[in-house]
Structure formats: structure tokens, C-alpha cells
Amino acid sequence: MLKGLHHVGIAVTDIDAAVSLYTTTLSAGLVSRGTLEGLHFALLDSGGMELELLASADPESAIAKFVTERGPGLHHLAYAVDDILTEVARLVGEGFEQSGEVRVGVHGTPIVFFHPRTVGGVLTELVEAHG
User: Fold this and answer.
1) Mind listing the pLDDT tens digit of every residue in the chain (131 residues)?
2) Cα 92-79-59 angle, rounded to 5 deg
3) Which residue in 12, 25, 106, 104 sits closest to 53, CA to CA?
4) Number of domains, the chain
5) For the CA atoms of 102, 93, 123, 83, what is the dihedral angle to 10 degrees?
6) Chain CA centroid to CA 30, Å
7) What residues contact residue 70 under an 8 Å CB cut-off, 6+ apart?
8) This prediction's pTM
9) CATH code assigned at 78
10) Which of 62, 16, 18 is nearest to 38 (CA)?
11) Residue 11 lies in domain
């Protein structure tokens, strides 16, 4: 079962400029920063809602392709789940199209994406929340 919105993913071209914008001008708190599988990320607390800033560290990454095609901006919505495999099976059974395999994301927990064409036009991620 979906437990609610976990975070909002935002594609950016410059991670340092984006962190500065969100922390200085928009008053979000920096939780952590890092690099994982072709992307630089920053996790921010924006008054109880997490923002996940994503910038390409590799021109062939999905984020690089997204920014090239669409420009920076909203990338995905992520929902927390207790059991990702159960939810994947349920959603695929409902007709959602899984996009890629379950893998470990920037939070250190399993994630998976679903294609926007089957989720009302929005790239949707499931995040197995920390126990």
C-alpha cells in the first residue's frame, strides 16, 4: 500500500546553484548531498516535504537526457511503501508500466519507477521507506 508522498524529484542543470537557490532563497534545509550512478543529488527538507535535486554527472544519464529534452524542472513524484515488491506486483497488475528494475536509490533503499504514460503523465517512483 502507498503510504503517501515521500519526495518530489527536481531535475537541475547545476547542483550547486540549485542548492543555493533552495536553501538560501526558498529556506529549505540541506539534509545531504552525494553522487550515485551518473548523477549528483541533494536532499532538502522543505518544511516537512523532501525535495530531491538531481543533476547529471554523466551526459548519458537519464537526468541529462531529461534536461536536454525538457529543460530543468519537475522530474518525478515518489511515494513511500513498506514492501516494494508487493507494490510493484500490484501496480503492474493494475496496468502500470514499470520503467527499469528495482534498484537502490539515493536514500539507500530500494526504488523503482513507473512510466508516465501509465500514471497520468507523471513519472512516478516507489521508495521502500526505512523500517
Assistant:
1) 899 999 999 999 999 999 999 999 999 999 999 999 889 999 999 999 999 999 999 999 989 999 999 999 999 999 999 999 999 999 999 999 999 999 999 999 999 999 999 999 999 999 998 75
2) 85
3) 12
4) 1
5) -40
6) 16
7) 11
8) 0.93
9) 3.10.180.10
10) 62
11) 2-128
